[in-house]
Amino acid sequence: QSALTQSPSASGSPGQSVTISCTGTSSDVGAYELVSWYQQHPGKAPKLMIYEVNRRPSGVPDRFSGSKSGNTASLTVSGLHTEDEADYFCSSYGGINNFGVFGGGTKLTVL
Amino acid sequence: EVQLLESGGGLVQPGGSLRLSCAASGFTFSSYAMSWVRQAPGKALEWVSTISVSGGSTYYADSVKGRFTISRDNSENTLYLQMNSLRGEDTAVYYCAKAIVVMAFDYWGQGTLVTVSS
Fold first, then answer.
1. Less CB within 10 Å around the terminal CB: N or C of chain B?
2. Which of B50, B101, B111 sits opposite A34 (nearest CB)?
């Protein structure tokens, strides 16, 4: 079970947009529409931001959007707010024999 | 209000055992798959284990297979993780999480710290 690949860091200024990528394989990200994204502030539990590639849970601003192309999923944060500064993790289902995997995380800095 | 409250963490010696519990409230526990996710200090999230609504199907990360056992008591609205043969690399905050769909966790507990050290 290899972790999904995320860039360690990303940054943007307030009001700008930033995209975070998450690369897996044809057995996980590429095989299922079951990619999720989580936001985690220091010392806090993760918060679900996107599930099933592009669905937003109730209460998550529509500034957050998800997409997928092949083995790579992406999270886009539009109109950055200072409170968006956090760690972001992707996850994917990988089938019965490789059930679940997370990405290594991306630290988003809002300059 | 959905609440997940973990307990049972602490300091244990290598090779030792711990049992984590997660008390759930605010939703129909028996209708949702549940999972354990851990996070070593300063590290990424790591999926540990998932159990189906009935408890009849369980899934484990390779790193814990054969050492950890997930279970649930739907009459008590409680999720468990029995951890045996603990290693230093098992040191982490352990979260229980409710799944909205596979590998999509919409509610998390506050976490319980497990430290494996002599």
1. N
2. B101
